[in-house]
Amino acid sequence: MEGFINGIGIISPQKTFGTDDFLSEVVEHNSKSLRCIEPSYKEFLNPVLARRMARIIKMGIAASNVCFKDAKVEIPDAIMTGTALGCLEDTEKFLLAIIENDEQFLTPTSFIQSTHNTVSAQIALQLKCMNYNFTYVHKGFSFESAVLDGLMTLAEGEAKNVLVGGHDEMTDKYYRVCDRIGYFKEETVPTMELINSKTNGSIAGEGAAFFVLSNAKSESTYAKLRGIKTIYKPKSNQEIESKITELLSSNGLTANDIDVVVYGINGDARFDKTYYHLKDNFFKNSTATYFKHLCGEYQTAGSFAFWVASKLIKTQSIPSAILIGDSRSRGFTSDGEQGLAIKNVLIYNTFLDSDHSVFLLSQC
């Protein structure tokens, strides 16, 4: 199964929305929780409607709108999104209203908009799209499941253009809950120093990223998605390497054919060891990059990595902000100067060392 990435729209803690720029100016945060840099929504939403919408809904509609324009697609044949938390802000509002109003006189708006499929539904409503629409809620595999559904739909000939996306938001209350159980760092670490952190926990993040996957190449094509694999709670590094080998072999490739690997290194001393094992052994001849210091850690952060990998192939360049150390493999210098073409990019990401995912993207 394969698909062409023909359009992208993304809102993140970086300046990624509605621009062709590829991390030439990185926003460095000095915070335990990264929040998205949001655009003005007047261009995408009626102000009256927008006033009643949660942040994540507005981000999803705006990002998908830009994605459609980028791909020159008016209405997709299907919409698949992935989210672990849904519209968390509205969920919290509804639960607090239950407590404050003693389970009486509750307004339905927050409840209606708190469901996980609200973002994909609102996108469809804005477009008047009556086609297949599905939301996956699979924790760290949510975005991956949406992409897999998109690839299968294209392979079965049921669609020509599908919208896939991943979105999750961070709220103050959810941050406090996760902080108590050790998800995040006790100390504040500047984002560009995150990779050097040797303590437990990461920094919180959020984002909304959407992509048009198509069955044919177009003028706007970024890259070809050649495969995806998920690994649940692997027992050893050998099992991980075996699964990656399976994915590469099915596409006629080996580890030596991978020009760049995008790792989900997040500064958590408990879990980063898997990434470094792959970097120093299995992919020792590939250029190493990482991304979570730019977007933070969240269940659908793989969608941000998907954007990074697509842009690496499209622009044929590597921003210095994502290079690990003084990596000089494959002809790339520590300043991101190109020596060889970027033909094959692999993404390796995990959430809490439980949900492991692999994407393989190639130049068209």
Uncertain runs with pLDDT below 50, 5 residues or more?
Answer: none
Distance between the termini: 15 Å
Count of separate structural domains: 2
Architecture of the largest domain in CATH?
Answer: 3-Layer(aba) Sandwich
What profile does the largest beta sheet have? 10 strands, mixed
What is the alpha-carbon Rg in Å? Answer: 20 Å
If you had to describe this structure to a student in words, what would you say it looks like?
By secondary structure, the protein is α/β, with parallel strands linked by helices. It folds into two domains: 212 residues, Peroxisomal Thiolase, Chain A, domain 1, CATH 3.40.47; 138 residues, Peroxisomal Thiolase, Chain A, domain 1 (3-Layer(aba) Sandwich). It contains eleven helices and ten strands. The protein has a ten-stranded mixed sheet, with helices on both faces. Strand 9 and strand 10 form a beta hairpin. Helix 2 packs across helix 5. The longest helix has 17 residues. The two termini are 15 Å apart. 51% of the residues are buried.
